[in-house]
Amino acid sequence: MQLQDLMVEPLPAVADHASLKQAALLMGERDLLVLAVLRGPEIIGTLSQRDLVTDGCAKGRTPQETSVSEVMTRGVVSCPLDADLGTALSLLEENRAEALLVHAASGQVVGLLDRLRLLDALAHADVEAHGPLPEYVRRVQGNPT
C-alpha cells in the first residue's frame, strides 16, 4: 500500500479566516479528521477535530465567532509521495502531528494523510513491506514482539 492509496485528495482545506462552524461543517460533509489551513495560496497550518474540541469548544469559544486561525495547529509536516508508510508514521510521531501534507517530487502538495487512516492501514499491513512498526501498532496486529 502506498501513501497515494490512503491520502485524501484533492487537498481538503479551509481559509484561516473561516469560522470554526464552517470548518466543522466541511469536516462533517467530507468525513474528514483534519483540514489544511490556507492564507491565500499558502498553507499555514492544520485544523484537526482535536483542535476544534480542545482549543475551541472546551475553552468556551463560540464556533460561529471564532476563526480557524485562533485554534489551528501552526506549521505543517510534509512527506514525499513516494515515502513508505513506516516513514510517514515516524514523521507523525516525531512531530506529534495529526496529519501529513503529502507532496509530489515537484514540491506541490497533492493530498493529506491523517493519523487514523495511516494507523488503520498499518494495523492491517504486511510488516515486511513497510519496515519495522512501532510497538503499539504491533499490539493492534496481535504481535507484540
Description of the structure:
- The model has no long low-confidence stretch (mean pLDDT 89).
- Helix 5 packs across helix 6.
- The chain has 145 residues and is α/β, with parallel strands linked by helices.
- The strands form two sheets. The chain has a four-stranded mixed sheet with strand order 1-2-3-4.
List strands and helices in order, with pairings.
Elements (H helix, E strand, L loop, with lengths): L2 H4 L6 E3 L4 H11 L3 E6 L2 E7 H8 L11 H4 L1 E2 L3 E3 L4 H11 L3 E5 L5 E6 H9 L3 H4 L4 H7 L4
Parallel strand pairs: 1-2, 5-6
Antiparallel strand pairs: 2-3, 3-4, 6-7
Helix pairs in contact: 5-6
Entry summary:
By secondary structure, the chain is α/β, with parallel strands linked by helices.
Give the key terms.
four-stranded mixed sheet, globular, 8 helices, three-stranded mixed sheet, 145 residues, alpha/beta, CBS-domain, single chain
Rg measurement, Å = 16 Å
Mean pLDDT: 89
CATH topology: CBS-domain
Strand order of the largest sheet: 1-2-3-4
Helices and strands: which structural class? alpha/beta
- Give the % helix: 40-55%
Number of strands: 7
How would a crystallographer describe the biggest sheet? 4 strands, mixed
Rough outline: globular
Domain count: 1
CATH superfamily: CBS-domain
Q: First CA to last CA: what distance?
A: 23 Å
